[in-house]
């Protein structure tokens, strides 16, 4: 029977989605807080230490986000099994996801270390070069446990257990801040190692979070029916291959988005400290705001996956669009808040009046893309709930690398070799105008894709 749109059903779905989302939101904010703590605390050590951490983090964050995306395949797999009542399949899927995590984690570790060769081409001082490379070498030891943690994270959230990830993320943040304080500045008899202390702290934190999740799963009753560690099981390559087919498109999508924003930061840097500072502040604030629709999106993978797994595509369609409109409603509220408080937001980050003025104008553009950004993340996650990952990848690659970045270069840089170009480079503002357009393209195409996919499934058409 179709899942009818009634006030009761709407309230029930909103409540269910929010119950899943809010612990993940706090967990996501805590995870972002680790990076904020690294930068803020290292900034009090020295400018060279801060530069080394910033460079090292630029590599770490891109690889970390990509690994996170690749490991998200387990979310939809477990959600489908829960919806279909096939709980017996879940332990096998989790064990194979952990084998996949072992391979992905080691590969990511190797890639991170190879990426330090880029520092040789950035004309860095010998000290910053050495410290940035050492930062990456040390922090890369946190990638294998992070990949395994994300496998267990996806399993836990897909069986409706989201509070553990919140508690563990808050525990990780507390550990990160304390160990940063001890290692950066040399308290309690420990040597002061500066920015490298952040790398040691974060790598240890990844192992702590993995062990904390394993301990929670071992003793919490909610995991007993699907507990994956009842016996040893070797890698099953066909299963791992299927997980990679689902997860790699998500990882590529995440890489494309993060690397596009990172490229903009590098391209804006040529216009001076005011431009890059305003860009970084606006980007930092909008990244924090983005955690809310992202949490809705991750919850949508679970809710849609449950509905599809139980063989109710009509409910899956209903759930998907309720989640999209919840995300859209938050986007409208955040846009209004940014418009009204943009000068206060800029002033909270910096006392430089020139940076404040430019940042306030960039935040006005950020307010414009709140609706499209909230829509694109919710629709892409809802589509992934159907175990469809390639189409969102293609659309988001087109939006970021086909529209936003080329248009940003045209507006922001106004290269002389182009016959049609702005009279003057628009610098950061040009790139942010392009982001508005790129995110709008993504939102429109993904909304169309979700409508088409969910309607086909609801009508029982072939996939």
UniProtKB/TrEMBL annotation:
<feature type="transmembrane region" description="Helical">
    <location>
        <begin position="426"/>
        <end position="450"/>
    </location>
</feature>
<dbReference type="InterPro" id="IPR048279">
    <property type="entry name" value="MdtK-like"/>
</dbReference>
<dbReference type="GO" id="GO:0006811">
    <property type="term" value="P:monoatomic ion transport"/>
</dbReference>
<keyword id="KW-0050">Antiport</keyword>
<dbReference type="InterPro" id="IPR050222">
    <property type="entry name" value="MATE_MdtK"/>
</dbReference>
<feature type="transmembrane region" description="Helical">
    <location>
        <begin position="131"/>
        <end position="153"/>
    </location>
</feature>
<dbReference type="InterPro" id="IPR002528">
    <property type="entry name" value="MATE_fam"/>
</dbReference>
<dbReference type="GO" id="GO:0042910">
    <property type="term" value="F:xenobiotic transmembrane transporter activity"/>
</dbReference>
<keyword id="KW-1003">Cell membrane</keyword>
<dbReference type="GO" id="GO:0015297">
    <property type="term" value="F:antiporter activity"/>
</dbReference>
<feature type="transmembrane region" description="Helical">
    <location>
        <begin position="165"/>
        <end position="186"/>
    </location>
</feature>
<feature type="transmembrane region" description="Helical">
    <location>
        <begin position="246"/>
        <end position="269"/>
    </location>
</feature>
<keyword id="KW-1133">Transmembrane helix</keyword>
<dbReference type="Pfam" id="PF01554">
    <property type="entry name" value="MatE"/>
</dbReference>
<feature type="transmembrane region" description="Helical">
    <location>
        <begin position="281"/>
        <end position="306"/>
    </location>
</feature>
<dbReference type="GO" id="GO:0005886">
    <property type="term" value="C:plasma membrane"/>
</dbReference>
<keyword id="KW-0472">Membrane</keyword>
<feature type="transmembrane region" description="Helical">
    <location>
        <begin position="395"/>
        <end position="414"/>
    </location>
</feature>
<keyword id="KW-0813">Transport</keyword>
<keyword id="KW-0812">Transmembrane</keyword>
<feature type="transmembrane region" description="Helical">
    <location>
        <begin position="57"/>
        <end position="78"/>
    </location>
</feature>
<keyword id="KW-0406">Ion transport</keyword>
<protein>
    <recommendedName>
        <fullName>Multidrug-efflux transporter</fullName>
    </recommendedName>
</protein>
<feature type="transmembrane region" description="Helical">
    <location>
        <begin position="98"/>
        <end position="119"/>
    </location>
</feature>
<feature type="transmembrane region" description="Helical">
    <location>
        <begin position="318"/>
        <end position="341"/>
    </location>
</feature>
<feature type="transmembrane region" description="Helical">
    <location>
        <begin position="192"/>
        <end position="216"/>
    </location>
</feature>
């Amino acid at each position: 029977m179709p899942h009818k749109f009634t006030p009761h059903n709407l309230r029930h779905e909103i409540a269910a989605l929010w119950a899943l989302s809010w612990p993940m939101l706090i967990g996501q904010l805590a995870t972002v807080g680790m990076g904020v703590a690294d930068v803020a605390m290292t900034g009090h050590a020295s400018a060279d230490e801060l530069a080394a951490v910033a460079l090292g983090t630029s590599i770490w964050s891109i690889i970390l986000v990509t690994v996170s995306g690749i490991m998200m395949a387990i979310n939809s797999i477990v959600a489908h099994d829960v919806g279909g009542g096939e709980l017996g399949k879940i332990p096998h899927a989790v064990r194979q996801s952990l084998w996949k995590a072992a391979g992905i984690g080691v590969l990511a570790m190797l890639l991170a270390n190879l990426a330090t060769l880029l520092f040789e081409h950035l004309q860095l001082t010998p000290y910053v070069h050495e410290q940035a490379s050492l930062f990456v070498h040390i922090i890369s030891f946190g990638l294998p446990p992070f990949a395994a943690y994300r496998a267990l994270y996806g399993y836990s959230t897909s069986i409706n257990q989201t509070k553990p990830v919140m508690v563990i993320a808050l525990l990780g943040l507390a550990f990160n801040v304390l160990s940063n304080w001890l290692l950066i500045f040399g308290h309690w008899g420990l040597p002061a190692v500066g920015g490298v202390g952040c790398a040691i702290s974060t790598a240890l934190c990844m192992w702590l979070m993995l062990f904390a999740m394993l301990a929670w799963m071992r003793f919490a009753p909610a995991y007993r029916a699907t507990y994956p560690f009842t016996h040893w099981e070797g890698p099953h390559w066909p299963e791992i291959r299927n997980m990679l087919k689902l997860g790699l498109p998500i990882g590529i999508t995440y890489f494309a988005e993060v690397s596009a924003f990172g490229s903009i930061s590098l391209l804006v840097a040529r216009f001076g400290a005011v431009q890059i500072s305003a860009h970084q502040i606006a980007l930092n604030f909008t990244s924090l705001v983005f955690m809310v629709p992202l949490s809705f999106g991750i919850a949508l993978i679970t809710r849609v996956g449950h509905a599809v797994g139980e063989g109710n595509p009509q409910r899956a369609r209903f759930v998907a669009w309720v989640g999209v409109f919840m995300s859209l409603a938050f986007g409208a509220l955040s846009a209004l808040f940014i418009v009204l408080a943009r000068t206060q937001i800029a002033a909270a980050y910096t006392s430089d009046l020139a940076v404040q003025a430019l940042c306030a104008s960039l935040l006005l553009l950020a307010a414009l893309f709140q609706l499209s950004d909230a829509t694109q993340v919710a629709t892409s996650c809802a589509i992934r709930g159907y175990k469809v990952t390639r189409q969102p990848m293609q659309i988001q690659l087109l939006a970021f690398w086909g529209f936003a970045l080329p248009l940003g270069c045209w507006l922001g840089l106004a290269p002389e070799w182009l016959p049609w170009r702005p009279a003057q480079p628009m610098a950061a503002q040009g790139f942010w105008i392009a982001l508005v357009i790129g995110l709008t393209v993504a939102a429109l195409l993904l909304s169309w894709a979700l409508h088409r996919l969910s309607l086909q499934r609801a009508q029982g058409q072939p996939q």
